[in-house]
Amino acid sequence: MRNLDAVNNPYGEDKVISACAIFGMMDVSGECFSGSQILEAMENMQERGNGLGAGFAVYGIYPENPEEYAFHIMFTSVSGRSETEEFLNLRCFVERSEEIPTRTLGRKDEPVVYRYFVSPKQKFDSAVDEDDYIAAIALQINSEIPDAFVFSSGKNMGVFKGVGFPGDIYQFFALENYAGYIWIAHSRFPTNTQAWWGGAHPFCMLDWAVVHNGELSSYGANRAYLETEGYKCTLFTDTEVMAYAIDLLMRRHGLSPELFADVVAAPLWIEIDRMNDNDRALHIALRSTYGGLLMNGPFAIVVANRNMMMALTDRIRLRPLTCGTKGNKVFFSSEEASIRLVAPELDNVWTPMGGVPVISRLGELPTPESSTLRDFECCAEVPR
Amino acid sequence: MKMQNELINEGKGGNQRQTVPKQRKASDFAIRSNRLPEFAIDRDYEKCIKCEVCIRQCAFNVHYNDVEDDLIRHRAEDCVGCQRCAVLCPTNALTVKVNPAQYRAHGSWSSEHVKDINRQAETGGVLLTGSGNDKQAPVYWDKILINASQVTNPSIDPLREPMELRTFIGSRADKIEVKDGKLVTKVPPQVCVETPILFSAISYGAISYNTQKALAEAAVELGTLFNTGEGGLHPDFYRYKNNVIVQVASGRFGVHPEYLNAARMVEIKIGQGAKPGIGGHLVGEKVSEDVSITRMIPVGTDAISPAPQHDIYSIEDLRMLIFAIKETTNYRVPVSVKIAAVHNAPAIASGIVRAGADVVVIDGFRGGTGAAPKVIRDNVGLPIELALAAVDERLRREGIRNRVAVIAGGGIRSSSDVVKAIALGADAVYIGTAALIACGCTLCQKCYTGKCNWGIATQDPYLSKRVNPDIARRRLVNLVNGWSHEIKEMLGGMGINSIESLRGNRSQLRGIDLTSEELAVLGIKPAGV
Predict the structure, then answer these.
(1) Is A125 a domain residue?
(2) What's A316's domain CATH number?
(3) Which ipTM did the prediction report?
(4) A64, pLDDT greater than 80
(5) Are the CB atoms for B64 and B29 separated by under 8 Å?
(6) Do residue B267 and residue B388 come from a single domain?
(7) Contacts of A90 by beta carbon, 8 Å cutoff, 6+ apart
(8) A233 part of a folded domain
(9) Is the same domain home to B163 and B95?
(10) Residue A296: which of B500, B147, B192, B157 has the closest Cα?
(11) Residue B190 and residue B107 share a domain
C-alpha cells in the first residue's frame, strides 16, 4: 500500500488521534470458543466507538497450518493482488492461499481479502531471524506495492478488521465460523481521520497483536527512538508505535511481558530508589536504556501472542481497564459492564493499578493479588 | 537591588585597594581617543553625598574625586556599562545609559563599525571581547512554540502528580538482558543528574575562586554537575568530585591522573561556540599563585591554549585520546567530546560517536567566553537550535542516536529554551552565561580585562571577594530550581510526566516566522498545521 500516509493521515497530522473500546477474552486451558460473547460485549460499548473502525484478533484459528505464517492481505485493485503474489512467490513457499470468505456490507470501500500460508525460502538458524525475514516481507509489501496491505502475519492466528462498528466487521468476515482460545477486540473513535480499513485495530506484527485505547503524548519521542532502531512509522498512530515497541522489546530483545511493562509504564524514580540492589540496578538499566520507549500520556492496551494475553494501562492510569475471571476464562475490558453482560457471576473482578501488567498465560490465571501492587521488595532506607 | 554581601564587602574592603588613585584632577587624563563614549553617566549632584562608593567600586577608574572643585566626577569614555556603581550608589544618584549621542546615522556604517575601526586604528590589534555573540542573529528559540494537551489527552498537574526530570548521561547499552530477574548486561558508565541542566565549562582563571566554588556547591545541592573548563581543578575543589566534569583541552592545563580520576565525567574540548576554530589565552596577569598551582604553569605566565589539540589532527587521533582517558579512569566514567556548532557538525558528531565518545556536546555560537576575538565571536559558528536539530537528525538516521547522550549549550536563557532544546533532541543542556548572571554578571562583555567589577571574571582579590560564595550558591540553586519547576509545568501541560518522553519529541514544537528551509532543518512543522 504505497502512500499509506495519504490514505491513513489525509490531514498530515503529527499523529492520528482516536479513543476506543477494548476487550480481550482468553481460555487459559487453551480450549477454543466462538466470538459471540466478544461481539456482545463490544456492542455493549457502542458509545466508545463511532463506526469508523473495529477489529478482532483470534488465536488458534488455523490448526491445520500451525507452522506457516498466515498473511491476511487486503487488496483494492487486481494488479495489487498479482504484484503481491509474484513478490510472495519470490521470497516464500506459499503452502495454501484462498480468498477469505466475506459478506458484503453494501459499501463501496470494501476491499478484497485473501489469506496466504507461507514459509520462508531461506533457512535460518534462529527463530528471531526467521521472524525478522517474514516481518520485513510484510513491511515491504505495505510500503512498496500499491493497493495491497498486509494486516495479519502470525502463525495459527488472524486479524480481521475494517471500517464499521464491531458488529459490521464480525458480519463482514463471517466470524461466527471461527473459534479461538484468545480473542481481542477493538472499536474505534477517531477524532480526525477519514476511515481506512487498514487503519483499524488490532495491529499485528507476526504473532503479536495489540488493541489500544489512548493518545500518547510521548508519541514523537517514541517514534524518534523506534525510527532510530530501524522501524518506519507510516500510519501516524499511537498504536503503531506501541506495536513496534512490543516487537522490539519482547520479540527482538526478548524481554518478558513484565519487563516490557516496566519500560513502557516504568516505575517512578521514587519507587526505584526504594528497591533492593538487584531490582534497582535492573530498573535503572531499563529506564536509562529504553527511556525513549516510556509511553507517556493515557493508554490502555490488550496485547496477545500465542501464549498469553496481557492488559496494561499507563503508569498514572488515565484510561479505564477492568479485569475479571470465571473458571478458565479471563476477561479484560474498558468497562466492567461488558464483562458482567457476558459473565454475570465472576470468580474475581478487579481494577489493576496504573502501570501494573495483568498477564494471563496458558495454564495460569491472573489474580487480583498478582496485579494490584507492584511486587518490589523495599529497602528500609533510600540509598542515595 | 543591593545585595547584602556586596554592601558588607564594600564597607570592609573599601579602603584597602592600593591600585586606585583616590584623588585625581581632570588634567591627569590625556586625550587618548576620538571615539564617542559608549555610555553616558548622569550624576544627580543633589543626591550625591560624596561617599566615594562609585570610585571604589569601579575597576575601570571611571569615577574620581576632583579635589579642586570638591566634586565627584567621571570620565564616561572609560565606562563599560556594567552598572555596578549605579546599583551600589546608596542615594541612587547615578544613571548609566547608552550614550544618546551617536555618529550620524548611516544605513551601512553602524556606530559599532565606526567605533571598531577607530579602536583598531588606535591599537593595530585584534579586537577582544567577552561573553557570547550579542548580534541580532535570529534566536530560533523565540520562533518555536510549545504544545499543550486538550481533551484527547489530559494535561497533568505537577503539584498533584509525580513529574520526573532525572536524566542519565552517558552511553547506553544496545539492549538489556535479564536472567532470573537479574540484570546480565553490563551497562556502560552513566551519570545521573536530578535535572537536565548542567553548569557549563568555565575555568578557574577565567572566573574567580569564589564563583567556581559557588557553582560547585550549587551543583552538589542540585544533584547536577559543574565543569572545570580547561583550568584544572583547584586542590580545595576535589571535595566536590561527585559533581564535577573535568575538561581536557588543547592546553592540557592541570591534567593529571588524579584530576581525571576525580571526575564523574571527562570532557575533551575540541571547540567552543563563542570562538570555533581558535584557542584561548589567559593573560599572565590572571595567573595568580592559586591559578598557577591549579593549571600547573608558572605564576604570571600567559596560559595559551592552541587552536587544535596537537595530538588530534584526525578522527582516529580523537579515538586514541578517548581511550587513553578511558584506560586512565578504568572505564568508570563517561567521556564526552565538546565541539563548537559549525556547518558540518552533524558529520563530525557522527564521527565522535563512532570514535567511542559517550556524550556529544554541541556548543552554539551564542555561548559565552572569557575572551575571544570579536570578529570570531560575532561571525563564526551556528545557532545551537539548528546545529542540535541537525546533529540529532543525523545520528538518528545513522541509527546511533540511542547509543549516546547529547548535551546542547550556548545560548540557553530560560526554562522554555531548555524544553525546546530537549524536544529538538538534547538529553540535557549546559548553562554558563545564565549561571553567571545569577551570580551578578550584567553582560558588560569585559571579562577579558580581568577587571570584572562584579567579582566574577577576575583574579584581583579586591574584586573577587565581591562574590560571596554562599549567596551565589543560593542564587544558582534558586535559578535552577525555578527553571525545573517551570519545566515540570510545561511537561504537565503536554501531558508528559517524565523528561525522557520529551527527548526528540519534535511533534510538541511548532515554528512561527520561519522559512520552509529553516523548518526542515529544525524538523518541525509551522504553527497552525
Answers:
(1) no
(2) 3.60.20.10
(3) 0.87
(4) yes
(5) no
(6) yes
(7) none
(8) yes
(9) no
(10) B500
(11) no
Q: Which residue of A has its CA nearest to B192?
A: A288
Minimal Cβ distance to B503: which of A217, A255, A292: A292
Residues 363-402 (B) with a CB less than 8 A from some CB of A: 395-396, 399-402
The verdict on a CB contact (< 8 Å) between A288 and B187 is yes
- In angstroms, the separation between the Cα of residue A20 and the nearest Cα of chain B is 11
Tell me the shortest Cα–Cα distance from B474 to chain A, in angstroms: 22
- CB contact A290 to B (< 8 Å): yes
Q: Mean pLDDT across the stretch B381-395?
A: 97
* Chain A interface, best mutation among B501, B508, B522, by max A CB count within 10 A: B501
Residue B242 in any domain: the answer is yes
The residues of A carrying an active-site annotation are 20
pLDDT for B5 equals 43
Nearest to A215 among B152, B182, B503 (CB): B152
Q: What residues in A contact B500, CB-CB < 8 Å?
A: 221, 287, 291-292, 294
Lookup: cell for B52: 566615594
Give the total number of structural domains in chain B: 2
Residue B138 domain flag = no
Q: Which of B125, B159, B177 is the last residue of a domain?
A: B125
Q: What is the pLDDT of residue B27?
A: 55
Does the CB of A269 have a partner CB in chain B at under 8 Å?
Answer: yes
Max CA separation in chain A (angstroms):
68
Q: Which residue range(s) make up the domain with B162?
A: 143-526
Question: Counting one residue from A and one from B, how many pairs have CB atoms under 8 Å apart?
Answer: 135
Q: Enter the pTM of the model.
A: 0.91
CATH number of residue B422's parent domain: 3.20.20.70
Tens of pLDDT along B472-508?
999 999 999 999 999 999 999 999 999 999 999 999 9
Residue B136 lies in a domain: no
Residue A104 domain flag: no
Q: What is the mean pLDDT of chain A?
A: 89
Give the whole-number percent of chain A exceeding pLDDT 70: 90
Task: With a cut of 60, say whether residue B25 has pLDDT above it.
Answer: no
Closest CA in chain A for residue B183: A282
B132 belongs to a structural domain: no
Range A267-279 burial, b when 16+ CB lie within 10 A, else e: bbbebbbbbeeeb
Count of beta carbons in the 10 Å neighbourhood of residue B459: 23
Residue A293 within any structural domain of the chain:
yes
Domain that holds residue A14: 4-61+156-372
Residue B99 sits in the same domain as residue B239: no
pLDDT tens by residue, B95-151: 999 999 988 899 999 989 999 999 899 889 999 999 999 998 899 999 999 999 988
Residues B163 and B111 both lie in one domain: no
User: What is residue B274's predicted lDDT score, i.e. its pLDDT?
Assistant: 94
Domain count, chain A: 1
- Residues B265, B270, B377, B458, CA torsion sign: positive
Could you say which of B166, B177, B503 has the minimum Cβ distance to residue A269?
B166
User: What count of other Cβ atoms lies within 10 Å of the Cβ of residue B464?
Assistant: 20
Average confidence (pLDDT) over A154-173: 95
If phi over 0 gives left and psi between -120 and 50 gives alpha, with beta otherwise, what is residue A207? Answer: alpha
Residues B448 and B483 occupy one common structural domain: yes
What's the Cα-to-Cα distance from A135 to each of A65, A99, A204, A238, A303, rounded to whole Å?
Answer: 19, 22, 10, 20, 18
The answer to whether A180 touches A59, Cβ cutoff 8 Å, is: yes
Do B446 and B502 share a structural domain? yes
Give me the residue label for grid cell 488472524. Answer: A158
- Based on C-alpha coordinates, what's the Rg of chain B? 24
Q: Would you call A14 and B183 a contact, using CB atoms and an 8 Å cutoff? A: no
pLDDT (0 to 100) of residue B4 = 43
- Asked whether the beta carbons of residue A12 and residue B529 sit closer than 8 angstroms, the reply is yes
Q: Quickly tell me which residue has 493497493 as its cell.
A: A147
